[in-house]
Amino acid sequence: MEGSSEIERSRFQNGDIFESGALWESGLDMPAHYRIGEFAELSGVSAKTLRFYDEVGLLRPASIDPRTRYRHYLPQQLEELASILALKDIGVSLAEVRQLSSKTHSNKERQEILNELKKRVEYSIQTASRSLQWIQSVLDDLDGCTRPIPVVVKRRPAIPIASIRSKVESYAQIARFEKELLNALPPHAVGSVRGVLWHRCADSGSLEGEPFVALKQRVPARSFYDLNHLPPATLACSYSGPEENDEMAYDAIRRWMSLRGYQLAGPKREIYFDRLLEIQFPLRSA
Question: Which domain holds residue 79?
């Protein structure tokens, strides 16, 4: 008997006993269940994680000792846990893992969940690719000793405005209409936002601008100016100081939009902040 035990131990160490169900045929007893620490070690996750999965209903222990409150797990639950971890590794949320693991859900419902995940991952890849292109663009600017010009996205609500739309021969001529507009409005009604909407720029072959001021009070209608609302918009914005070339900020926004697949959704806006100019491009997805 002792020699037989030595042979059995040797087969266990060499791994032969696991072949073709030899472990069960050998008569060696295997545990019917595992305490949480043992199960954690076998599965490769922490006991803390197993407790959390129990709390959220993702992986319940097979039984709980009513006296000690110890959790016990079955060997078959190792495979169930492996499925959960595999889904988490590909980005499935715990709520979705619970749905996919539920026996009440059909294969069609599982396919819908995974197809939705696929779409999210594809969108993330596209977003990351555009970000990499933008980073490379900034690096190229630095190589050319050009100061990177930041572009930010802002969402602005509609605001009431008074404006004058005019065709001009040069950008400088628009200042005359801005001055006339301000002189025509009562000072107490003029808000803090003022600027120009550019309906046509030099690259189109003509210039057409619309100086505007925000209104904080109603003003009487006059034929000299229009009363309207500046529409709500999502805007790509950049800034240009008094010693800087405005066209560089325009180019930065155009490059930013091209890399992210946006199109212009209305007149470009120039907003005045003392000596700082904010340039805004209304956006829509391509």
Answer: 31-101
The Cα–Cα gap between 4 and 9 comes to 9
Tokens of 105: 């859900």
SS3 category, 208: strand
177 within domain boundaries: yes
How is residue 231 written in tokens? 């529409």
CATH assignment at residue 197: 3.20.80.10
Q: Amino acid identity, residue 234?
A: T
Question: For position 8, what pLDDT does the model report?
Answer: 42
Query: Which residues make Cβ contacts (< 8 Å) with residue 161, sequence separation at least 6?
Result: 212, 213, 214, 215, 227, 228, 229, 230
Alpha-carbon separation of residue 80 from 21, 32, 40 (angstroms): 21, 16, 13
Q: Compute the distance between CA of residue 7 and CA of residue 17 in angstroms, rounded to an integer.
A: 11
Give the pLDDT of residue 20.
39
Q: 149 vs 35, which has greater pLDDT? A: 35
With residue 8 as reference, give the H or E element that holds it: helix 2-14
Specify whether the CB–CB gap between 212 and 132 falls below 8 A: no
Give the CA angle between residues 6, 12, 17 to the nearest 5°.
115
pLDDT, position 86: 87
pTM value is: 0.57
